[in-house]
Every structure is written in structure tokens, then in C-alpha cells.
Design brief:
The protein is of the alpha/beta class. Helix content is about 30%, strand content about 20%. It is built from nine helices and 16 strands. The strands form four sheets. Strands 6, 7, 8, 9, 10, 13 and 14 form a seven-stranded mixed beta sheet that branches. Helix 1 packs parallel to helix 4 and helix 3 packs across helix 9. The protein binds flavin-adenine dinucleotide. Flavin-adenine dinucleotide binds next to helix 1, strand 3, strand 14 and helix 9.
Length: about 350
Amino acid sequence: MPDLIVAGAGMGGLAAAAEAVSMGAEVELREKGSRAGGSMLLSSGVVWRHRDFERFRRECPGGDPELQRVVWESLDADLAWLEALGAEPLERDTHNPLTAGARFDTRQLTGALVAAAGGRIRFGAPLTEAAGGAPVVLATGGFQGDRELMSRHVTPWAGDLLLRANPWSAGDGMRIGLAAGAELSAGLDEFYGRNMPAPPARVPEEGFVALAQLYATHATVRNSRGEEYEAATWSEIDVVQWTARQPGARAWYEVPDAALDHRVRERTVGEMVAAARAAGAPVERRARSTVVEVVAGVTTTIGGLRIDTTGRAAPGVCACGADAGGVATGGYASGLAAALVLGRIAARSALGAVG
Ligand SMILES: Cc1cc2nc3c(=O)[nH]c(=O)nc-3n(C[C@H](O)[C@H](O)[C@H](O)COP(=O)(O)OP(=O)(O)OC[C@H]3O[C@@H](n4cnc5c(N)ncnc54)[C@H](O)[C@@H]3O)c2cc1C
């Protein structure tokens, strides 16, 4: 029997397995999909925290303050740990004055973590229950891939959402945790995502980052009934969550010509509009504006299993990453950072080394 079973070979599971291997543990690392890296592999690779903790609290007011404190305080040391494993940051800057962290090449990061986790992953081997004696770390990446759970918790328009994530994260961790006696966190109706070019646009995995439509603050945002919504956050997470709850999970961004040259991080608004048009989204030219139809794209759910600061969800069961709620609740924080920090803690805790 292994010392530890880890479910999921994405950010949280690989960090947990690498930590456990470094402690000399025998780890069984099970992955439902056909490759390592989960949604981390598809991500922009920016592992970050808010620069100051008070701002983190203000922006994510529904989270557990103690859990947030652990993630916030541990991240810098855990980024150094990643570097020590051979994951070399492309830059140690997030280009956002409100946040600090580093950006990684996600292939290289995944490779370094897989090697540190011992290199042995059982692919196509989903964990379905936490029975069997060995402690378990759940890191299956949230429930955005399960339409029934999404319509129960997030939106009646779940069937219209675009899945902007790996295809395998479908609530397995939540089900396994609940069966073992865990409880649910707050914020089950929340998710992180981006509005994306609407059908008939083609949005392949490689386009998840490049096709994101991140300019609601420069546009008038309406639903199909013509009702307007005003963006309230820099991350626009409120806009995508609002969009998900509108008919067809759709919105229309009307962009005045004068806004097309504005920059949002490394792209102009005009470049994002052009990318939507090139992908095949409905884009309409008007006298002095352009209207782009977008659909809510879901990256990870924010609510999940309730854990304590040692990652524990139930006896013998720890959870991390998007399987664990309570970190970004009420707002937006780095899913990669939470998965990294709580993955390592969950492994130590499951092996009896903390708590
Ligand atoms: C396009 C995109 C851009 C993003 N950009 C950023 C960014 O810049 N910064 C940031 O912080 N976050 C970003 N994210 C979010 C980030 O990728 C996730 O928050 C993070 O990967 C969550 O880690 P995780 O371990 O919970 O899930 P994942 O990394 O998705 O790993 C979960 C793994 O579990 C596997 N699995 C599912 N069910 C089972 C089961 N029953 N048994 C075994 N294995 C199972 C899945 O196949 C998957 O491999 C982005 C995501 C996407 C898609």
C-alpha cells in the first residue's frame, strides 16, 4: 500500500506529490486524463498574490481569512521551492501593480513538477473513492466540467457555457470528499473565467488565453434583452459571472472606435476584437463602434470542499487547488498560487507531518 494517494496531476496534485516524495513517501499519483498538467498546462502560468494582504481580504471578502493568510504568507517561499525544483520563471513580474509573483512556461513547469513527483503517473486512472487505508489528497481541479453541478450551483444556462479548462475536472474531488464526511465551503455559485468569442467561433485549447475578451471596462456590456452591466473589478470576474447568468450565457460588448487603441496588459482592445472576429464570432460594425458577441467561459469553480489551514477536509482526506473552497471567495485570486501552497501543505498534513 502507498503512503499517500494523490488524485490529479495538475498544479495542486503535482505539488502535493512532489512534496510527499521529498519526504521519502511512496506516492500513488492518479490522473483521470491522458496527460499531466491539468488546467495549469493551458494557463498563462502567472503564479501570484496580492501585494498587500488587506487588499486580498477586501477583494475576496467571502474567503476564510486564516486560509488566505496561509496562501499569502507561503507563496514567496513556494515560488523559491519551484525554482529549486528546476522550474525557471520567464519573469518575476506580473505587470500588475496590485500583485506580485512570477510567470512560468507551463510546459517546463509541468515537466519540473512531474520529475520532482517521481515521474510515475497512472494515466486514465480516476480516483472514485477515498477508501483503502492510505490517506488521500484530492486535487481534481473543481467541478466546472460537470453540467449538472454547474446548473445546480452556478447558472441555469450551464449548457451554454464554454469550458475554458481541461476536460476532466468534473467534481470528482467534491463527490469523494462529501462521501468521506467533508463539508462544502461558501461560494459554490462562483467561478473564475473569461468572456470568450461566442459561437460559431472556434475556441480550441490553444486559444484559451489568446482569445479572451478582456475589455468590458472599455465597452458597454448588454445582455440579449438590452440590459446593461457595468464592470466592477479590474479582473472582470464579476462581468463573466454576470454573463453566465444571462440568457444563453451571452453578452454583447459595444466598443467605441476611440477605445480600440487602449491597452489591457499586453494587448490592445482592437487586437482582442480582431481575434474574436478571426475566430468566427459574430462581430458587427456600426457607425462609430463595434459590437462583439461573447459567451461566458468557465476556467475553475471557486467554491469546493471546506478545508482547515492544514488542508484537511475529512478524516484521512485532504483537498487543495480548485477542489478546496475558501480562498478566492467573493472575488479573484491566483488559482495556481492556492494550488501550489495548499498542495504542499495537504501532502505534509496527510502524511501526519503537520496539524
Ligand atoms: C486558459 C487558462 C488560463 C489561466 N491562467 C492562470 C494564471 O495565469 N494564473 C493562475 O493563477 N491561474 C490561472 N489559471 C487557473 C489555473 O490553471 C487553475 O487554478 C489551477 O490549474 C488549479 O489547479 P488544480 O490542481 O486544482 O487543477 P488542475 O491544474 O486543472 O489539475 C486537476 C487535475 O485533476 C485531474 N482529475 C480530475 N478528476 C480526477 C480524478 N477523479 N482522479 C484523478 N485525476 C483527476 C484532471 O484531469 C487534471 O489533470 C488558468 C487556467 C486556464 C485554463
